[in-house]
């Protein structure tokens, strides 16, 4: 999942860096096991802005989450926390564009930053 505002925010770095990164993401989206979705930049405040996280299902069927914070990362396995993060994921997913439209935005961003 990608926040659409990140496709518009300039970064310091060599010319063409953002174009190359967005082009790489678009190329990755051709892989059958990779889906990239963008939450449009004009979306009002939504739960995804609270910070990044990864939900992972382990071989034993349990689910854990990896939370990214500014100071450190945290692994969470408590059922209530996982349930909250799953609801957050569903909310973010509901705000995101379908994969094809997201890929189009990535391609446009790559061209814009060339």
Automatic annotation (TrEMBL):
Xref: InterPro entries: DUF5753 (IPR043917)
Lineage, broadest ranks: Bacteria, Bacillati, Actinomycetota, Actinomycetes, Micromonosporales
Protein name: DUF5753 domain-containing protein
Domain called DUF5753: residue spans: 3-108
Native source organism of the sequence: Micromonospora thermarum
């Amino acid at each position: 999942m990608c926040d659409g505002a990140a496709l518009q925010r300039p970064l310091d770095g060599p010319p063409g860096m953002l174009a190359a990164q967005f082009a790489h993401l678009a190329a990755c989206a051709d892989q059958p096991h990779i889906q990239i979705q963008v939450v449009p930049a004009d979306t009002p405040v939504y739960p995804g802005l609270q910070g990044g996280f990864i939900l992972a299902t382990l071989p034993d069927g349990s689910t854990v989450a990896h939370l990214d914070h500014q100071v450190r990362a945290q692994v969470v396995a408590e059922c209530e926390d996982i349930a909250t993060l799953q609801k957050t994921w569903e909310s973010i997913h509901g705000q995101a564009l379908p994969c094809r439209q997201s890929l189009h935005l990535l391609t446009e961003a790559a061209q814009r930053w060339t």
